[in-house]
Amino acid sequence: MSIFENLDLIQQKFHSEIETITSSEALFQWKAKFMGKAGELSEVLKGLKDVSPQDRPKIGARANELRDDFEKKFSERLKSIEGQEIAKKLAAESLDITLPGRVRHVGTVHPLTQVTDRILDIFYRLGFTLITGPEVETEFCNFDALNVPKDHPARDMQDTLFLKNGHLLRTQTSSMQIRAMLSQKPPLRLVTTGAVYRSESVDATHAAAFHQLECLCVDKNITMQELKGTLEFFAKEMFGHKTQIRLRGSFFPFTEPSVEVDCSCVFCAGKGCRICKHSGWIEILGAGMVNPAVFEAVGYESSDYSGFALGMGIERIAMLLHGVNDVRLFTENDIRFLEQFT
Ligand code: DAH
Ligand 1 centroid to 312 CA: how many Å? Predict the structure, then answer.
């Protein structure tokens, strides 16, 4: 086979093989096979020494032609492969900007906690200090020392959740008055808050577990006037400066005298509406002057000291403040309800 024929064959082979190569890396390796020092073209051109001198320039020209052709083909093919490779890479890394973003749910403080914090803040400004205590209580702190008679219906199995060990789940935060007085000497200006439990059948206005907030103030010469001033300040700070309060005589075993405290209706400003049952007043809490029997039970000298106490239901205040008509909403954790308090 003549050297010319050989060169033709290499060219054909080059042209048909180049189309089968699909990566730039493989393309460079393959190029060396034809055009490198030990490549097929160089091999053929080694035969040049056996060719007659007059034929040599023709073969040289043909070889140059082939080189140019190979280079041209090679760079065309390389360009096309690289184009494909870039397109492939872009497709793999592309961002779909039409996809909705990830929603970040931001939590908020529970409405009952928000209300508790507001109430606490009002009493802090009056110089009250926060104390906390156990939800599992002794009968002594929850009832006996608070002057609740042994046969009082509140102690009944139907109202109080007794535990097997003889203790109970506290039914009122008033138990903390006893703990405070047993561990501290007067003067006291304390506020406490937390969950309380009752054996209650649950409906829109009754829960078996709810929250109370309680204040106790003990010092020399504390009078009802002091209680009234505290209540007035609280009501105005909580419900607005136009709010009025009214004290109605009532009964609690641990206070004497005892009062129930109403504030002018938050919804109709005292004019009378459905919420206040057209009376213009809404009951918000219980209070009174500490019963000397309670002082006796904790070892305070009842002739030297006097004091007042007050207690309220957090759920009740929150319902009033936000116009919520079902206490169960606070514990159902329905996000549609909760997100209204952000
Ligand atoms: N412990 C009472 C209750 O659960 C609320 C209460 C009334 C607390 C009068 C007091 C108070 O401190 O003086 O219904």
Answer: 7
Q: Is residue 97 part of a domain?
A: no
How do residues 22-50 score in pLDDT, each as one tens digit? 888 989 988 888 888 888 888 877 877 88
Instruction: Count the Cβ atoms, other than its own, within 10 Å of residue 17.
Output: 12
Evaluate whether residue 100 is within a structural domain. no
Strands 209-219 and 136-137 turn out to be: unpaired
- Nearest Cα residue to 122 out of 213, 198, 211: 213
Dihedral class, residue 187 (left if φ above 0, else alpha if ψ from -120 to 50, else beta): beta
What total of structural domains would you count in the chain? 2
Q: Of 148, 226, 254, which is best to mutate to test ligand 1, by the most ligand atoms within 8 angstroms of its C-beta? A: 254
Check whether residue 68 and residue 210 sit in a common domain: no
Q: Angle formed by the axes of helices 24-35 and 56-93, to 10°? A: 170
Whether residue 230 is predicted with pLDDT greater than 90 in this model: the reply is: yes
* Domain-terminating residue out of 40, 60, 92: 92
* Amino acid at the residue 78: L
Which atom of ligand 1 is the closest one to the Cα of 174? Answer: 1
Amino acid found at 172: Q
Domain with residue 241: its CATH number is 3.30.930.10
What would the pLDDT profile of 47-86 be if each residue is shown by its tens digit?
A: 778 888 888 888 888 888 888 988 999 999 999 999 998 9
250 lies in some domain: yes
What is the C-alpha separation between 100 and 315, in angstroms, rounded? 39
Concatenate the DSSP letters of all residues of 107-168 into one string.
Answer: P---HHHHHHHHHHHHHHHTT-EEE---SEE-HHHHTGGGT--TT-GGGSTTTS-B-TTS-E
Beta-bridge mates of residue 209: 197
Same domain, 332 and 216: yes
Backbone angles phi, psi at 217, to 5 degrees: -130, 120
The residue nearest atom 3 of ligand 1, judged by CA position, is 172
Domain hosting residue 166, numbered range: 111-341
